[in-house]
Amino acid sequence: MKSLWKKYKQNKLVQGILLLIYISITSLSLFMAQKSVTAFLLLLSSLLLLYFTNFKNLTKWLIAGIVLVFLLPFTASNGDAYQSYMEVATLVGIYISMALGLNIVVGMAGLLDLGFIAFFAVGAYTYGIFATVQASNFMPFGTFPLSGESFWLFILIGCFVAALFGILLGIPVLRVKGDYLAIVTLGFGEIIRIIFNNLDRPVNITNGAMGIPSVTPPRLFGIDFLYPSQFYYIVLVILLFTIFTVRRFEHSKIGRSWKAVRENEIAAQAMGVPLVRTKLMAFAIGASFSGMMGVVFAAKQAFVDPTSFTLLESITILVMVILGGMGSVPGVILGAAVMTILNLQVLTEVTSWLNQLNSTGAFSIPDALSPSKMQRLIFGLLLILFALYRPKGLLPAKNHVYNEKELQEGSAKENKGKQEVMPDHSQIEKAQEV
Amino acid sequence: MKFKKSLALLLTGSLAAGMILAGCGSSGGDTKASNVIKIATQTPLSGGSATIGEAIKLGAQLKLEEEKEKFKDLGFTLQLVPYDDQGDPKKGVANAQLIGADKSIMAVVGHFNSGVAIPSSEVYEKYAIPMVSPANSAVEVTTRGLKTVNRIVARDDFQGPAGAEFAVNTLKAKKIFIVQDKTAYGTGLAEAFKKAAEEKGAEILGFEGITVGEKDFNGVLNQVVSKKPDLVFFGGIYAEGGLLIKQAREKGVNVPFLGGDGMDASTLVEIAGDTIKNTYITSLAGDSTKIEEGKKFIETYKAKYKKDTESYSVYGYDTMGVVLRGIEDAIKANNNKKPTREQVRDAVRGVKDYQGVLTKVSFDDNGDNDYAKVFIYSFKEAKYPAEYVDEVSK
Amino acid sequence: MLNEILQTIPQVVIDGLTLGAVYAVIALGYTMVYGILELINFAHGEIFMSGAFIGTAILIVLTGMGWVSAVPAIVMLITVLLLTAILTGLLGMGIERVAYRPLRNAPRLIPLITAIGISFLLQDIVRFIAELQKGNYIVTGPNLFKDQLSIKASSISSIFNDASIKTSFVIVLVTAVIMMIGLDLFINRTKWGMAMRAVAQDRETASLMTVNVNKVISITFFIGSALGGATGVLFAVQYGTIDPYIGFILGLKAFTAAVLGGIGNIRGAMLGGLLLGLLEMFASANLTLLSGGVFGAEYKDVFAFAILIIVLLFKPEGLLGKPVTEKV
């Protein structure tokens, strides 16, 4: 079995052919059998297959791009389930982005943040307040609601506001470590939710528990974005930007600083890593991704209220990161996709199927055991099983393995040109003898 | 190492199996037969309002099964598709998309939480699926100018003043203390009540909030004790309401309690026990035991589902009745062929003078029921349903 | 305004102590486990909740069998307490065996995540057992103690109002105090207690001193969970109605109390719990007055969390703790 896998890994042509066949079969079946959720999911998992191939990075991205931008929407559009699939895909995109943000905080910098949904809420409310008449309650100037064109500007504004909140959260907790950090961030998350829930007195900023309805949809060149299929593209673009940014950060100095802080704070400090700046950057950047997606979410849902931002959501995103593999970008993407689809489609469909069996009298499961209510149970089980048996996640983070021989050869070449400048070891040795 | 790897494979395998199962579920159950008409219900079947959500679903189911014969004669098979919105707006919207995708679903009976109804109805509007609500009372549900949203119950801006009228004029309360549960429903109702009570000349001694899920209300109740009102109003659901009443009585607060329709459930009496005496509620659901058809309904329901009815069961029943009447009108107007969703939507909005078990329904231009009433009940002893006192019509 | 606040103080104090007693005993469980394992047992709140449910279930069954009216309420309560404590203790021990022991040498993040997982698992299991039996997960237990006592505080000074106490509160407070004193004696005067303190101080050296570390940890979990479960029964007796989600918020606040008092410190947990209960009750009763209507009673959770954050920022070792310097 293993040798077959090895041969498969070497042979790019076989991989390419297999991938092509797989994609064509699944997209064709999705095109034909509109209602088949399985075909939709299999088409999405073709991306997973793509990940395991051995092509050059650029080729992989190109193929992924073609599948996501053209194939998926086109094949799904042959019927009525189109919007439903796009809705799922859009939500998957939103959650992936948030999971990537949390991945930076938890996975790379090792700061366990259980209140992450607060930044999402901040982004959503930022757009929600200004895109409806809500803002006229406390803003002395300007006409509200703002027009749909402002949505694009608000993505950036949401990003910055969330980053600001991230820094505000980060500053007090700099000295707190480990488990305490988890509880403090949990407290912060809850505080933000309670405050948003109650901010209708004395000045009505968030309309409290009633929520803010009828958020203006985004508009570009006169077209209003109303359907999930349109939001899908917005989400895709922002997601690409997020993935790109995260990868760049991961392989940069700040990324290495994060990993150093994660492993051992004191040693990192001793090596000159600026602790405060590193931690704050982690919080700010992680938060900004959430903020951007919060703005998109508010526009898509057209209704912002505090019940979308509970602790359960924070833990869900945490489960995504853990499931996928802390610190690993492809792992987190997989984890987020699996969890969202599980939650939104699979559980609901299994429940509907059981209900159908129930009504036709095949066999009845008491209501209490219906799978859509078992969400917490499944989360709990997933968390425990993964923590016990596979703490590194589905696609663990790969440390960049340097090829020692290459490095030695490279430095030998450099040294040849620097012969004269070599320090005089003999002198130093003599000095030490004294 | 091998064990862990195979376990991971097993996990991934079961995940995949689950997805395939899900796929089979949706593709298997869908017949291309064009004479299947499905009606979806979306209510909270889990969470704090599960009792009521379940009751609405069962009531709707009962009506659908009773009408199956009639529609079979017209050549159509009726089917119920229940969904659980868990009281979560995101779930509601996601389910709404699924409902929209299933072309044979012609109408939706739901929701219970206004916070879920509002965003979900935006989706229904896009798909032109009519939604008739048996329970949503928040004003905003029907004031957005959507053609698909209707409700058979009264709105909070009618329920609040009705309660205030009863409080000030019948119970002769001059000083009122208001507690609300900081949800969209509770705050909305409490605010409507507060405004109306102030207009009638009552003095509001306090407007405090509690959190859903907490059990200890001594802090707020201490305020009530020190302020000495003539009446305490609670805007919220039965889980907190019951505890509030119980703890208030234990503290010696013996003035009457007034609550809204969220308190109208058997669990309220279960939680509060004997302390429920001297409590009044305004409810949007009438008393089924007063009418012959009502009593018949209760018996049929109990025999079929082995459960007692909640007050909202009959509203689920009547809502389904309205929906089916609308569909029937649309079919007949379409020469006995399957109507489009737009036709059903307009037909449902156009329903006039439908007499259900407890309600008479005529929708106005906003989708509100002209004949909606608010009922007032009192709990003289620890028994549910409570005793009927009065009703207020538009 | 000051007048109003002063008038209600006796009642606020009494209510605060009731709430505080519950927090204190749950905090004991947290602090014991943290002292020994340096692990925040997130699932402890759910063990408390399970205790409440098990106790209520036993009470309902016994009421059905007609035993409750035959026996004085106190005896009934003690029986139920003991039974529940043993059952929840075993539950806690089981959880430790299955989920924490394999991860004893893993980085700190992983057991925390397992704990969250167990917390969710327990919540849902209790939920659907309750729903299967009742159709609804809110469970109301039979009322055991209903009488009211009244303290004539107005006789002390005319500023104070009278305060009224439920008998059940007295029972809860007395039981909680007995449990706390019992624990204190156990930890400080018995051999097992000494072993626990040794393992908490330095696990490796303790094992070198022939202390069976695994057994000590199991016993710690047993005692902590038993106490938590007993508190659950007291809670159910005091408030009457329980649901599967009470464990979470109470657990969080109890953890705040433990931190407030100094984590790892038994007396600190007790003090922290009582203090937090008093502060929360005071805030809930008087926040509107103090802030002129801007903040109401709904901010009392924010109040509790804010205290936690402030304590962790400025005195992370808590009120009764000793500052620990991190050695490299």
From TrEMBL, chain A:
Transmembrane parts of this sequence: 12-31, 37-54, 61-79, 85-106, 111-130, 150-171, 178-196, 231-249, 280-303, 309-326
UniProt entry tagged with the keyword Transferase: no
Region (Disordered): 406-434
Keyword Transmembrane helix appears in the UniProt entry: yes
Localization in the cell: Cell membrane
An annotated GO cellular component: plasma membrane
Main subcellular location of this protein, as a coarse class: membrane
Membrane topology: Multi-pass membrane protein
Cited PANTHER family: HIGH-AFFINITY BRANCHED-CHAIN AMINO ACID TRANSPORT PROTEIN BRAE (PTHR30482:SF10), HIGH-AFFINITY BRANCHED-CHAIN AMINO ACID TRANSPORT SYSTEM PERMEASE (PTHR30482)
Entry keywords, A to Z: Cell membrane, Membrane, Transmembrane, Transmembrane helix
InterPro entries: ABC_transp_permease (IPR001851), LivM-like (IPR043428)
Any GO MF annotation of the entry: branched-chain amino acid transmembrane transporter activity
Superkingdom in the source lineage: Bacteria
Name by which UniProt lists this protein: Branched-chain amino acid ABC transporter permease
From TrEMBL, chain B:
UniProt-listed GO biological process terms: amino acid transport
Keywords: Amino-acid transport, Signal, Transport
Signal peptide per UniProt: 1-22
Name of this chain's protein: Branched-chain amino acid ABC transporter branched-chain amino acid-binding protein
Family per similarity comment: Belongs to the leucine-binding protein family.
Domain Leucine-binding protein: residue ranges: 37-367
TrEMBL record, chain C:
A cellular component term, taken from the record's GO annotations: plasma membrane
Sequence intervals crossing the membrane: 20-40, 47-68, 74-95, 107-130, 167-187, 216-239, 245-266, 273-296, 302-320
Keywords: Amino-acid transport, Cell inner membrane, Cell membrane, Membrane, Transmembrane, Transmembrane helix, Transport
Pfam short name (any one): BPD_transp_2
Cellular compartments annotated: Cell membrane
InterPro entries: ABC_transp_permease (IPR001851), BCAA_transport_permease (IPR052157)
GO biological process, one term: L-isoleucine import across plasma membrane
Membrane-topology descriptor: Multi-pass membrane protein
GO molecular function terms listed in the Swiss-Prot or TrEMBL record: L-isoleucine transmembrane transporter activity; L-leucine transmembrane transporter activity; L-phenylalanine transmembrane transporter activity; L-valine transmembrane transporter activity
First-listed, main subcellular location of the protein, grouped into a coarse class: membrane
Annotated PANTHER family: BRANCHED-CHAIN AMINO ACID TRANSPORT SYSTEM PERMEASE PROTEIN LIVH (PTHR11795), HIGH-AFFINITY BRANCHED-CHAIN AMINO ACID TRANSPORT SYSTEM PERMEASE PROTEIN LIVH (PTHR11795:SF371)
Stated family: Belongs to the binding-protein-dependent transport system permease family. LivHM subfamily.
Full protein name: Branched-chain amino acid ABC transporter permease
Native species: Neobacillus vireti LMG 21834
The organism's taxonomic lineage, starting at the top: Bacteria, Bacillati, Bacillota, Bacilli, Bacillales
